[in-house]
Amino acid sequence: MHDVQNYPDDRNITVDQVGIWDIEYPVVVKDRANKTQSTVASVDISVQLLPRFKGTHMSRFVAVLNSVQGEITMSNIPEILKKTRETLESPQAIIALRFPYFIEKSAPVTQINSMFAIQVLFSGFSDVTSGDSFILGVRVPVTSLCPCSKEISSYGAHNQRSFVTLYVQFSDFIWIEDLVHDIEECASCAIYPLLKREDERFVTEKAYENPVFAEDIVRNVTEKMMQNAKISWFMVETLHLESIHAHNAYARVERFKKQSPLLSEHLRMFKGFPKIQTLL
Asked: Which of 68, 158, 195, 259 has its CA 20 to 30 A from that of 79?
């Protein structure tokens, strides 16, 4: 049978990314409380297509994923990308995995435990000459209360559920739970999956005592990330689902503490994926 993908192409154009999106696959993640946690990720994986090839071989991406026997971890992503590059004869490969991650959380007063879901992203990048790069992302729901509403009102203030997304590149291992804690400290109040009356009173009053704009949250997170010596780059964004407006509120900060050509190329490819920004 003819291998049409390997036919020559005379347009001399490199395709930046070609691959497969939204394949569901098992993932194993380090869990601070339980050592590991198994979940299911939506996986995007692509390569750079050199000018001499007419097309890529989509089935080979799936074959590479199958070769890890049903488990993708942070530690074996570089090997997966290397094998992808070699199998597809490409100098670059990138992968993005989006998955739910569960943390056991205690209500603030009653201390009742329940499972709290956040969204996590792993993105690995591999270049045949420059090496490997990794980005971790977390998307955390929080409560935000409007400082302006509190200031102008005789009583009460409007608040809403907000989503804070933080992406980091780091030099030493960082727990997902630590990033979640940092984000929650920067909001008006954390969100809890189960609240009794005593807990509800606590979170209502705490939010009222800690009003924040969208701009406040991204600045608060920026201060924490700038103080963390492990982090070389970060991007934080918040999306407030406004409770009294027809629009939502958005803010973003991105900072390079240590820049490198490898990271810059990873980010160029990373931002080309759909559904990356805000992990929606």
From this structure: 259
